[in-house]
Fold this protein.
Amino acid sequence: MASAAEELDAVVVGAGFAGLYMLHRLREKGLSVKVFEAGADIGGTWYWNRYPGARCDVESMDYSYSFDPELEQEWEWTEKYAGQPEILAYIRHVADRHDLRKDVVLRTKVTQASFDEDTSRWIVRTDQGHEVSAQYCVMATGCLSVPKFPEVPGLDRFSGPWYHTGLWPEGPVDFSGQRLGVIGTGSSGIQAIPHLAEQAGELTVFQRTPNFVLSAFNGPIDQERVADIKANYRQAREAARNSIFGIAVDMPTQSALEATEQERQAAYQKGWDRGHLNAIIQAYTDLIFNEESNETAAEFIRAQVRDKVDDPATAAKLEPRGYPFGTKRPCLDTGYYETYNLGHVHLVDLREEEILEITETGVRTTASEYEFDSLVIATGFDAMTGALLDIDITGKADQSLRQKWQDGPGTYLGLAVSGFPNLFTITGPGSPSVLSNMVLSIEQHVDWISDLIDHVAANGRSVVEAVDTAEKEWTDHVRAVGDMTLFPKADSYYIGANVPGKARVFMPYVGGVVGYRQKCDEVAGNGYEGFELH
Ligand code: NA7
């Protein structure tokens, strides 16, 4: 255990993709850094989400660090979309390669961070009794790291084992022959369900909102494509940086309504066959802005559902309706819809019957009582702000972040918060974050923060703080851009709708990775306008 008030240059909270790269960059400058990580190992999201079928929905060649060109060449991904074990192995490899583990304290949760105005330092405390004092505090806590549970009573009473997808145990879990219930059909549920169906004797899925599920067409990685990317990795990375979602795709030039029905079908089919999260949404310029255009893509996907699911009544329940395509994160699947053609897999539509409680033996709804041996809870996360507000963070004048963000998060560029000097949030609310290739956005944030820290030192100062007016202006801009799109029309975690009582505010910046990067570079180029140095 650390001695009381150990003095550091920086504390980083979280040892996932973001925290590990931040550690690397800060240590390169010769700063003393400690990373606190709640998990028993490094990896963040990829440590916790080890449910069967857990897989990235960004292609392996894109979802990887770019800062180490040798690593880029050496590492060999085996699949188009890497599974959780492979991504975790990659993160561990990077940590060993750069000797990062020695500064990571595992099994340790940061509980409190307070800015001491007398010393201009952060005092950070953990559940293991650490108390450290640091000039900088970097929150690399992840956007999807605080699990959300169903809002119905009784999970504690259920007599069988239950598992949240985001807190999956390390050891093997065997559902062979069991009566298994799954609550939730977001990416986690959709990835897990085909695997769970292989084991379970009877599998019952509780669906509240049907999702738009695109086929991943996953498989062994295309070696020709790998060779091509590796030969031109710098250009490939640059293209990704200059894209909307941090993944380079051909940019559309036409509105969906300008195309004929036949042209649209061909374009959507091409996007579908590509097996890619953004290929359909970026088939036309206006799918995310215009409901009528959006509906043409939505209907194309519904037709795929009808095609794949044998029973028309089940297909009708699975057809996504009630919100525009793309405004809740679409899912990439392997065999999801086909799973409902198996005789032992049942779908309960929670728009027809509501869950009232979880009982000792299963789930009771307004229509029926279902008995289970085990339950899988795939109900997602308190996204974007959950992990930040989980920590008791106090800035200047004893203002708490929880207080400040009561009506929704306000940040400058999603990176900094006024009143909280020398505190940075990697992929924080107000940055492209969950609407982008996270690894790419993480690298951009870490590099930018790292340059800002250099700037502070080069100016002989020790404190940097976002200016209140710059924060307000940026936060208004984030909302205004969100309002130009169809995103606010869905009850998504992007808008906090999945957590009862959470302020309904659109949190990620949807202006695109390329424009966001330009803005950050512009701010830096103008002497870090919107920040004050002390
Ligand atoms: P998501 O995408 O938030 O999905 C959670 C799912 O759980 C979704 O279908 C929810 O329905 C459902 N849910 C949530 N609460 C309940 C209750 N109380 N009752 C029934 N169903 C409920 O989380 P995931 O873990 O699947 O994916 C998170 C991200 O990981 C994903 O976006 C990718 O980036 C990877 P709802 O739609 O809210 O009606």
